[in-house]
Write the structure tokens for this entry.
Amino acid sequence: MNTEFYLSEIAKERIRQDEKFGEQNHHPLVWFSIIGEEFGEMCKAYNDYTLKDDDSNSWDAMQQEAVQTAACCVAMLECLDRMAEKGLGPETGR
Ligand SMILES: [Mg+2]
């Protein structure tokens, strides 16, 4: 796999997120919590891969969670752009 492949996967995940949740506008601290959850899921998949003998799907799960984490970071960047367009800073973006 290469950069273009993973950027495409992240773009597909962004579309999936918008279809599932709609446009997401959150304070940056909420985004950190959302991204932290996805990062935690990526870590769990790695732990499952290394600690469980019977979980051969965990490597794929780790890659999927990495894409989801990256897509959430992109979603946060899009949100920050929307806030900036409205003249809002983090202190008012709730
Ligand atoms: Mg996830």
Summary: Residues 49 and 59 are 6 Å apart (CA to CA). The radius of gyration is 15 Å.
